[in-house]
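If it is no trouble, can you show me the amino acids of a protein and the tokens describing how it folds?
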Amino acid sequence: MTDSKDLREDRDRLVDAADADAYVRGICFKTGPPRLLGVELEWLVHDVRDPVRPVTPPRLAAAADRLRALPLKSLLTVEPGGQLEFSSQPASSLASCVTEVSADLALARAELSDLGLVLAGYGKAPWHEPPRVVHDPRYDAMENYYGRWNDAGYTIMCRTASVQVCVDAGYEEPGPLGYGRRWALAHLLGAVLVASFANSPLHMGRPTGWRSTRQACYGRTDPGRTLAPSDRLDPRSAYAAYALEAPVMVLRSDEGPWDPPEGLNLSRWTRTRRPRPPTVDDVAYHLTTLFPPIRPRGHLELRMIDAQPGEEGWLVPLAVTAALFDDPVATETAYRTVKALADTAGTAPAPRNPLWRNAARFGLADPELHAAATVCFAAAREALPRLGAPPHVLDAVDAFRARYVDRHRCPADDLLDRMNGKEIRP
């Protein structure tokens, strides 16, 4: 067994470009039978009596302290704007993932209720602009980096929330559950998921013109770390090239700020070895600062789904995505369905291609995306009993289909319906 000293020595090992390339190829796609599932749930935190009123930083800090003391199985993290993220442990089934995360959320909600707070499921803060409340060198450097572009990156950091579903990369071999097919599926199905679960149509209480303003923000910021890699190479080669060319966002230092020199990407850093020689650990950290719509981390992390309304809204994207990736029959149906969307997507990478932009702007009002969603939801619903989905999960999927998919709607439309041409009142 490798001891901690060996691990430290490996992390501190200096790397050149070839080493960095090999590291990314080796760590980002770990293949084998799809058997594990996970979910990362980001939530905004609102005052239970007056959701429009911003929650002060001291109240957010008190809430985080209370939640950290709970016996949670999920990993709890506090995002820069005070969003709370619950990251599940890898689960061997959909049922066990749902059971563990639901129990954690129940504990958290009870504790927050005692403080007059509630977890709020919106893809973007709809009524005010939360300031940054977590201050550390990483987020200082990220804010400075994003400031070179526009306000979209800062909005993503501090004012957005999501449901991120994690599925295994898949088999090494070709086929419906092979990693190459699953990678391609994710980049087309991702637009259907954006459209189906879009839930961020407001800024400061007014419509933005997008059903998913959160996704629109990803389309506006640094393309070097938020666009999908090239589809002209195999996934490992494409992501290694992507990571090497991506600008360095954060350069850790024992002293002073963590801002890197402008124009420094990982490839140049490994060649010049300036401002200091990079290590294995630096490459690993660099990967945590890349935010494409599908991020390979050994497994595939699908990052495009807005946070959902209601206490159990998150169950639906988790269940539907799990079914479409891990049930062979549903996977084949989904792949045939979304493959037809490739012509609309064109050659530009997600999320800046026409398919993803239509998904973010129109949701399921887009006829092509609605047709694909109808087929995919039906395939997922048929597969879920085979995956052992609990009855309340099946009920949640049925209710979502009836409320939204069957009616060419997404959760954002509920918020827009409440506008009536006036500033929203919750």
Remarks:
- The chain has a mean pLDDT of 95.
- The chain has 19 helices and nine strands.
